[in-house]
Design a protein that fits this description.
The complex is a heterodimer. Chain A has helices spanning about 5-25, 35-55, 75-100, 105-125, 140-155, 160-185, 190-195, 215-220, 230-250, 255-275; one strand spanning about 200-205. By secondary structure, chain A is mostly helical. Chain A has a single domain, classed as Up-down Bundle (Formate dehydrogenase/DMSO reductase fold). The longest helix of chain A has 29 residues, at about 160-185. Chain A is globular and about 75 Å long. Chain B has 8 helices and 11 strands. Chain B has a 3-stranded mixed β-sheet with strand order 10-1-11. In chain B, strands 2-3 form a two-stranded antiparallel sheet. A two-stranded antiparallel ribbon of chain B has the order 4-5. Chain B is α+β, with helices and mostly antiparallel strands. Chain B has helices at about 25-35, 95-100, 125-130, 150-155, 170, 190-195, 235-240, 250-260, and strands at about 10-15, 45, 55, 60-65, 80-85, 105, 115, 135-140, 145, 180, 215. Chain B is elongated and about 85 Å long. Chain B has a single domain, classed as 2-Layer Sandwich (Alpha-Beta Plaits). The chains are: A mainly alpha, B alpha+beta. At the A-B interface, helix 3, helix 7, strand 1 and helix 8 of A face strand 3, strand 4, strand 5, helix 2 and helix 3 of B. Strand 1 of chain A pairs antiparallel with strand 4 of chain B, so a sheet runs across the interface. Chain A: This is DMSO reductase anchor subunit. Chain A: It comes from Roseovarius azorensis. Chain A: GO terms for molecular function: dimethyl sulfoxide reductase activity.
Chain lengths: ~290, ~260
């Protein structure tokens, strides 16, 4: 799949933002006034910034309002509704903390649940895809939620939670990669089933329909950079998971914590790039590619 | 509404005969022509005369080589070349419809055609991801998703002569490899063709329940093989050489030319 920068940025930043909103919602840290304002500003910048980035890949962003209508069947529609609901509820909760020094706990819990639901619905957009065997697993929502909670805890300064959640996310990440590497073969979809010609013999793509490229190949048969996948996995594990934990085990300082956050985000960006670039869509089979 | 209908009154679709298709791409051209001038946004091309041309097509013809396995009876089986037209299969359980966040994609209850309402499409591309067949392409000029409409603006069009009220690809196919009809009717041409020739689904394991069926190619003649016992080649006696050396006028001409 084509690793569109807008979608990578969106899923990474909004995951982090909604993760932070989750922790703020359950009152960890229990902040009020200007400190609360700063935390909420960071969370909203990430969550809303991510949502804005996601509209860059739309053909008609001016019609985005229509995307809230099909929650009965569409995970993308559900994601939009959860995101807006989470942002509205958390805004009311945040206003109480910032301006009135009052914590309406119930509102915070609802906002936290909606923030988590947003990350879950985002992950289900990918996990529902029968056509991309690497994504089609319950491990996908587990991984994206773990990353979001870990990153949110990191921004919320919940060091003990980070030290538990980042290793959990790292384990899920490794499991997700390990499963993903054989997912396409396990799915059973081959050029033989795609053409129905497998009963006659070995099928080989002889000639594509056209000499040039097309939307399908650009979008779904992206192959650039897969050769660097192993290196990028090591980089993602080191920056996204190992280094932040190491930095937080050292005596606490705000400078080190900032480095931990930057390193984590860089690692997750690399992991998210691989999430798309390594994912193989079955339509590539028709073109003799994966 | 992007929830799928439980059932549709009719199931309109295509039968594509892989035995007959000669790979001429006429269906590709007629599809592009009709659908550029009619329903919805035109099918644009990008850089059509440049070094890297590409464009939106609703129907494309692939070609596959199939190499049968060698057996003791057939130690050197000849490979078969199969031309393979591919357009939207108008699936009964269309995954492209349910993922649509805006309701632009829908499957019609009355005839099962999967359509895109282009004025509702935000161009998110998720339906193209959900389709295993590559039947949907985002138009790069218009920013909306394009797909086969089964020529919905032809098949019900009373301004056209009745013979033209079939999809453009079916009407144009010079080999008669494409058939249009109602699969819900067991006596329709498409239903009977499917039953008689073993019409098959593409990627059945994806669970999409495609309406369009593909007829498998028949085995080709095997000239390098001895005839099975009892089978008489009626042409053979007529094709044996009548003489080894030319005689008469041709014999004289042959000798005369040799001497020069």
């Amino acid at each position: 799949m084509h690793p569109a920068p807008s979608v990578i940025t969106f899923t990474t930043l909004s995951g982090l933002g909604f993760g932070l909103l989750f922790w703020l919602g359950i009152g960890l840290p229990a902040v009020t006034g200007w400190v609360a304002f700063t935390f909420f500003a960071i969370a909203y910048a990430l969550a809303v910034g991510g949502l804005m980035a996601s509209t860059f890949h739309l053909g008609h962003p001016e019609r985005a309002i229509k995307a809230f209508s099909q929650w009965r069947s569409s995970w993308l529609s559900r994601e939009g509704i959860c995101a807006v609901a989470a942002l509205v509820v958390m805004a009311a909760y945040g206003a109480g903390l910032v301006f009135f020094d009052a914590r309406i706990a119930m509102l915070g819990w609802i906002g936290a649940a909606l923030s988590l639901a947003t990350v879950f619905t985002t992950s289900m957009i990918y996990a529902q895809m029968n056509t991309v065997p690497r994504w089609k697993t319950p491990l996908t929502p587990a991984l994206l939620i773990a990353i979001s909670l870990a990153g949110g805890a990191l921004l919320a300064g919940q060091i003990s939670a980070v030290l538990i959640l980042i290793p959990i996310a790292a384990v899920l990440q490794v499991l997700w990669w390990a499963r993903g590497d054989s997912a396409f073969a396990v799915s059973g979809t081959t050029l033989a089933t795609a053409t129905g010609l497998g009963d006659i013999g070995t099928v080989r793509a002889f000639e594509p329909p056209h000499t040039g490229t097309n939307y399908l190949l650009r979008e779904m048969a992206y192959q650039v950079g897969r050769k660097h996948a192993r290196k990028l996995r090591v980089i993602a594990l080191a920056l996204g998971y190992a280094l932040p934990v190491a930095l937080l085990l050292a005596p606490f300082s705000h400078a080190l914590a900032l480095v931990a956050v930057i390193s984590h985000v860089a690692g997750i960006l690399a992991s998210r790039w691989l999430f798309f670039a390594e994912a193989e869509h079955v339509v590539g089979l028709y073109y003799g590619r994966r | 509404m992007t929830t799928l209908p439980k059932s549709t009154t009719r199931k309109l679709g295509l039968v594509i005969d892989l035995d007959t298709c000669v790979g001429c791409h006429a269906c590709v051209v007629s599809c592009k022509g009709w659908n550029t001038e009619n329903y919805g946004a035109p099918l644009s091309d990008q850089n059509p005369y440049g070094a890297d041309p590409s464009g939106t097509f609703l129907n494309r013809v692939h070609s596959y080589e199939v190499q049968p396995l060698a057996t003791s009876a057939m130690p050197h089986p000849a490979a078969q070349l199969i031309h393979f037209p591919k357009s939207c299969l108008h699936c009964q359980d269309a995954p492209c419809v349910t993922v649509c966040p805006t309701g632009a994609s829908y499957k019609r209850v009355e005839d099962g055609i999967v359509l895109v309402n282009e004025s509702d499409c935000i161009g998110c591309g998720l339906c193209a991801w959900a389709c295993p067949y590559g039947a949907r392409e985002m138009d790069q000029a218009e920013g909306v998703m394009k797909k086969c409409t089964l020529c919905v603006d032809r098949i019900y069009n009373e301004n056209l002569p009745e013979i033209d009220r079939v999809p453009a690809c079916v009407r144009t196919c010079p080999a008669g490899a494409r058939h249009f009809g109602d699969f819900a009717d067991p006596d329709s041409t498409v239903s009977r063709l499917t039953a008689e020739r073993g019409g098959m689904d593409l990627m059945p394991e994806q669970g999409t329940g495609p309406v369009n069926k593909y007829l498998p190619p028949r085995p080709k003649d095997r000239l390098d093989q001895p005839k099975p016992d009892g089978e008489i080649d009626i042409l053979a006696p007529f094709l044996t050489p009548v003489m080894e050396e030319p005689a008469g006028f041709l014999g004289w001409l042959d000798r005369a030319l040799e001497r020069i």
